[in-house]
Amino acid sequence: MFAPVYLDHNATTPLDPRVLEGMLPYLREQYGNASSRHEYGRAARRAIDEARQRVAYAVGAHPTEVVFTSGGSEANNLFVKGAAACLKPGVVAISAIEHPCVREPAKQLRRAGWTLREIAVDENCRVASANFQAVLEEKPALVSVMLANNETGVVQDIAALAAQAKPTRAWFHTDAVQAFGRRPVDFRALSGAGVHALTLSAHKLGGPKGAGALVVDKRVELQPLIAGGGHERGLRSGTENVAAIVGFGLAAELAVARLDQNGRGLAVLRAELEAGLVAQGATIFGARAERLPNTSYFACPGIDGETLVGKLDRAGFAVAAGAACSSANPEPSHVLLAMGIPSSLARGAVRVSLGPDSSAAQVGDFLAALNTTILQLRGLTALTS
Description:
The protein is α/β, with parallel strands linked by helices. Helices cover about 40% and strands about 10% of the residues. The chain starts with a strand and ends with a helix. The model has no long low-confidence stretch (mean pLDDT about 95).
């Protein structure tokens, strides 16, 4: 069967075989409900407790601070809506480059009487310091700034931003979904700077889809999105997906163990990739900022991104035209527009996100296919002009 070279790891990652092996018993013989009091249930509860410890250890948190969810979107909604439900309507501040699962619940708060402020970013996708300070002068009750952007890969100095926001007494949250597994994430250190919660997702680091977590300081009062039997400290009711949670714990442990090695290798590969992209006239977004080592977001002037992605797919390379969650949206990336990128160039955006199994040969083959495809598209444009 034809299988394209997979270069879209920011959308999702392949399930690590070791993670699958660890999950299988909980899909077969260990099928108990973790709330049951018999041995089947106790075995499921022990598995969840062990996974919670693994996730907590991987991010420098205490196990009681880890609340399992169905994924990053639910965890982000749990913080934004859950915290807001325990506060009087005020100002909610989010960066202009947040994932839709932060942007949309923040917009919902606006309809419920909150004031929404978007924190500007500069041309390198970094939070604009002056604008951030201006927003803080409005004394926001909630602040959310992502640790690493899912499109550009640009990393924010969350500790510094949280420290700057600390005098406002706002609850500060960071979406660490893309960062976790690709760079160190230390909740205890971030908490000391003023971060109260962060979001994680299993399927971005070799784990299964359907498992995520909100790591949250126990001083933060949250109203659950899902009411019921009081699972997860009363913050997320519902029978636990034991197999996915077990897989999340294993994936977190494995990701931290190979972090340094993978990071160095991916940085070298990306440098080779971007040298080839620049040689073909591409613009690389966020290139002057610190980025995740696996992520390159670029555009070739005059080439439509969606068209290019489709052609590359047929040539055997799976890449993305921006974020997977918004792939049905024909509008230019809100991230690039926030960076001040002209709409005409933003429409050409393509994201390549490498993984642990990506190779120099794949990068070379991709660059060759890209060159051929661009020449074909420009030839077609010349014929129709």
